[in-house]
Prior knowledge:
alpha+beta, Structural Genomics Hypothetical 15.5 Kd Protein In mrcA-pckA Intergenic Region, Chain A, PsdUridine_synth_RsuA/RluB/E/F
Amino acid sequence: MRLDRFLSETTPLTRSLAKRALKNGEVTLNGEPIKQSATQIDTEQDEVKFNGETLSLVGLRYLIMHKPTGVECTARRGLYPRVIDLIDLPKAERLQPVGRLDVDTTGLLLLTDDGQWSHRVTSPRHRCAKVYIADLAEPMEGSDAEWAINQVAQGILLDDEETPTQPALLRFITPLQAELTLTEGRYHQVKRMFAALGNHVNALHRQSIGDVVLTDDLGPGEWRELTQEEIASF
Length: 234
């Protein structure tokens, strides 16, 4: 690997800033100052230091986060903090949400810099089940609840859509709280489905994706690395 590319992969430096750091003598290769940006290095054997700090490549990462409300799943800086701002890892900006949650939606969020793995999780072909808990504005019980459950099981034609939603599973925890299990991910799908049922979602929380479940030991804003078993489950 070229030395300037290695520096851009392992530090906040861009390629142009990496070249400047090399010219300024801020980089050593195996203990010797080096200024040639095109120098080829062995990333496993050679020791590269930047301002005295040993550098190493960052491998693929797979994280689970308990996303709090008021945080955006976006790379751009805007009105709200970003989920990657909550992650204290090198090159955190490379991590991408695996399926987004709205700024006011909480719960399980997966993040990775492995694009192929992310595609496996989100691809409609894999029909990965996602479980949401919705707090409703209006109570639904009795025949109203039964009607809603049947509608969701059959599929609902949402506004501005040409095909109905895939069959989904709805159950009511209480008249004002429902659990909805989906195998697709249309834009604002949960909120739009309840709107089509004549209700409004006051709060939305994602509890699980596939076999990965958000547990109580992970508080809002906290994250951890996925286990090998969780990664392989998709």
